Amino acid sequence: MTGSVIDAEDIVQDAMAKAVLSLRQPAIIHNIEGWIFRIAHNAAMDFLRQRTRQHKTFANEDFPALADEIDTIQQRQLAAAGLRTFMRLSAAERSAVVLMDVLGYSLEEIGGITESSIPAVKAALHRGRQRLRTITLEPDDRAPPTLSVAETRRLSAYVDRFNARDFDSIRNMLAEDVRVELVGRTRLRGAEAGRYFGNYERVSDWYLRLGVVEERVAVIVTNHAKPDGPPSYFILLDWRLEQVAGIRDFRHVGYITESADILFLDASDGPRTPL
Predict the structure, then answer these.
(1) 18 lies in the same domain as 121
(2) How many domains does the structure of the chain reveal?
(3) CA distances in angstroms from 99 to 1, 15, 50, 252, listed in the order given
(4) Is the same domain home to 125 and 161?
(5) What's the rounded Cα separation, in Å, for the pair 180 and 199?
(6) pLDDT for 26-59, tens place per residue?
(7) β pairing state of 270-274 and 233-240
(8) Domain boundary among 136, 168, 193
(9) Which residue segment(s) compose the domain that 168 sits in?
(10) Which residues of 244-262 are buried (b: 16+ CB within 10 A; e: fewer)?
């Protein structure tokens, strides 16, 4: 729905927190999975409205029955479409295709989650499938991202020192008010950040490489035993001049790498290994 695994993880965390708070209230929930998906869907829609400043809703007109049948192969092709591709659909089309072709919900269940009529869901599903079929035939002519000289220098310094386990030098790169978020676990600030690096000192299952996640410069983490292997997770750094002002570490939500647009970068040659 958001076109970004990074934004999506924020929404998932927010949705689960809302669900836990709601469960404290006495109520009977007949379909807890659908109920949670409704919370997540509403959170995603709120995020999209805030990001675009446009209020997009499902239309409730009485559309003709356009629930086109698709075979298993077509459904798999639609479900395998990348996040960037889904973002070219409207929010209504995206909701219908994701909920049915990716998650396997029925028209009635989708109507309940999105609070839309069955005809509106059918129409959105039809338009979304048709649009995806067209988009997937178009060539991907995006230019590969590259690092600037400044980005390469400071990110390489961070990665090299981290891989050398020179955490004292890493700490010297931090701003005094640095914010650290271990996504899904904890948040630290300032002097508390020392605990974060202390935890990394005690484990050896990581190896850091330069990369890009969703066109954003990032640190890609692979397994130390196989540094050229697939990404385990990634870390985002925010810089204030030459100091690290923010760290978002996705170690404990590594599942999001399955859908992330990740590119390994060679510091000297630019893009190297697309995934």
Answers:
(1) yes
(2) 2
(3) 10, 17, 22, 25
(4) no
(5) 13
(6) 777 778 888 888 888 888 888 887 766 444 444 4
(7) unpaired
(8) 136
(9) 149-274
(10) bebbbbbbebeebbeebbb
